[in-house]
Amino acid sequence: PGPCQYYSTQTTRLEQQNATLNALVYLDSNPPASVHTRSLLNDLKLAVKDNICTRSMPTTCSSMMLREFQPPFDATVVKLLRDGGASIIGKTNCDEFGMGSLNVHSVHGPVVNPYIPPFSRGKPFCQEQRSAGGSSGGSAAAVAAHMCDESALGTDTGGSVRLPASYCGIVGFKPSYGLISRWGVVSYADSLDCVGILTRKIRDVMRVFELASVYDPKDPTAARPATRTRAFEACKSYLPQFTSTLTGLRIGVPQEYFPAELQPSALSPIRTVLEALKSRGASIIPVSLPSTPYALSAYYVISSAEASSNLARYDGVEYGLRIDLAPDADKTKTANVYAHTRTRGFGKEVQKRILLGTYALSADAFENYFLQAQRVRKLIRADFDRVFCVPNVLTTASTSAVDGVHVLLHPSAIRTAPPLPNDKDSHQEATPDGLDDYVQDVLNVPASLAAFPWVWRQKDEWPMGVSVVGQWGCDEMVLKVGEIIESLQ
Ligand code: GLN
């Protein structure tokens, strides 16, 4: 990798930073002040991932397919935050349609991790360029580099908020599925997609989440108000009232979350946190989630299957890119327009997922792949339900453990941010078989298939997060434990 570029004096600070990091793909350097009735967010300058629709700004999903797309409306979450006082400063780079773990599969090029490790500080050149993580890498880099006030929106289908947060050393929050509306969020895999929040401090997550977590009748998968209330009440009644100690707080450490791929240095942050929590009176309890080893395969089957169906709408006819046939081509063969458009419009990784997903849904493979993956998903949910003390309000037969844990704690990633491939233009081919990317998700996908976490950061060397996972709807409990951990730093 080459040296970091120097900032020119001709451009604004944001443009200068962006020339190095490539975090923003659209910049509104002078966003109009929002007309708002509530001002909880006090003119917060927010960056929004480029797969969340924004009026008067492009929404490209980092894809050639939507390069010219400008939605005439705001996604519900964007509208809620604008109404609450936030102004949108721009759109952030991401992996194409949210598919990836390193933010290298983007038509806008890869995102560079802005973190400067202590051993490089003050040196004229960056030692190496590392990945900001994906797929919400632009949002994480924008927050870490102070390009937006405190917060950015991302989306998390199988770790896309949590992994970049860990790589960039910030907080990444994936709420319980269904709490933040997905209306206006471009679908990757509907049954897993969540809007997530990236910030530097937990209290900023809370500010944004409070406004964003509202029932939206336009989103058919949104959790109903009664379900939310039931979950919040159940969680509240289980969380002990902390005074000066953490007595009564039970933290589970799942043994399956320390796989062979885990870098030895990934262990130190979680050890430090566990020791500190223990010394303040919390009980640390080893637990087992036996279906974890199957989660990654199940996730990629389910997410690819849903993606293949969702992405079928980009056909070169209604909207998005259209590659017309040569004037002398047979115009009756519309499939050719479809094939040409999709071959040019989608990058290699997206094409791979479409093929995998289409295969998993085909008559021959459906039983062995898709249904099998759905069975694994059920087992994973049951694993989580067995270890939490709070019952899962989404399942009728709730089997919570009386002596179960309040939250789980585990490393957020198997390693610190990996180096970016040397040739920035080779981003589509960065990892030819893609498996290296996929393994990065091994610790995050089980919670996507069931519950949710956030991230804590280690302060020296390259950052490494610690995830807190709670029962569905216990977002407040998870954030509370997050605040406690934050205060230990
Ligand atoms: N890396 C995972 C994938 O490629 C997760 C992506 C996401 O959460 N959007 O599918």
From TrEMBL:
<dbReference type="GO" id="GO:0070681">
    <property type="term" value="P:glutaminyl-tRNAGln biosynthesis via transamidation"/>
</dbReference>
<keyword id="KW-0496">Mitochondrion</keyword>
<feature type="domain" description="Amidase">
    <location>
        <begin position="36"/>
        <end position="479"/>
    </location>
</feature>
<feature type="active site" description="Acyl-ester intermediate">
    <location>
        <position position="160"/>
    </location>
</feature>
<keyword id="KW-0436">Ligase</keyword>
<comment type="subunit">
    <text>Subunit of the heterotrimeric GatCAB amidotransferase (AdT) complex, composed of A, B and C subunits.</text>
</comment>
<dbReference type="GO" id="GO:0050567">
    <property type="term" value="F:glutaminyl-tRNA synthase (glutamine-hydrolyzing) activity"/>
</dbReference>
<dbReference type="Pfam" id="PF01425">
    <property type="entry name" value="Amidase"/>
</dbReference>
<keyword id="KW-0808">Transferase</keyword>
<dbReference type="GO" id="GO:0032543">
    <property type="term" value="P:mitochondrial translation"/>
</dbReference>
<dbReference type="InterPro" id="IPR023631">
    <property type="entry name" value="Amidase_dom"/>
</dbReference>
<dbReference type="GO" id="GO:0030956">
    <property type="term" value="C:glutamyl-tRNA(Gln) amidotransferase complex"/>
</dbReference>
<dbReference type="GO" id="GO:0005739">
    <property type="term" value="C:mitochondrion"/>
</dbReference>
<dbReference type="InterPro" id="IPR004412">
    <property type="entry name" value="GatA"/>
</dbReference>
<keyword id="KW-0067">ATP-binding</keyword>
<dbReference type="InterPro" id="IPR000120">
    <property type="entry name" value="Amidase"/>
</dbReference>
<feature type="active site" description="Charge relay system">
    <location>
        <position position="49"/>
    </location>
</feature>
<keyword id="KW-0547">Nucleotide-binding</keyword>
<keyword id="KW-0648">Protein biosynthesis</keyword>
<comment type="function">
    <text>Allows the formation of correctly charged Gln-tRNA(Gln) through the transamidation of misacylated Glu-tRNA(Gln) in the mitochondria. The reaction takes place in the presence of glutamine and ATP through an activated gamma-phospho-Glu-tRNA(Gln).</text>
</comment>
<dbReference type="InterPro" id="IPR036928">
    <property type="entry name" value="AS_sf"/>
</dbReference>
<protein>
    <recommendedName>
        <fullName>Glutamyl-tRNA(Gln) amidotransferase subunit A, mitochondrial</fullName>
        <ecNumber>6.3.5.7</ecNumber>
    </recommendedName>
</protein>
<comment type="similarity">
    <text>Belongs to the amidase family. GatA subfamily.</text>
</comment>
<dbReference type="GO" id="GO:0016740">
    <property type="term" value="F:transferase activity"/>
</dbReference>
<feature type="active site" description="Charge relay system">
    <location>
        <position position="135"/>
    </location>
</feature>
<dbReference type="GO" id="GO:0005524">
    <property type="term" value="F:ATP binding"/>
</dbReference>
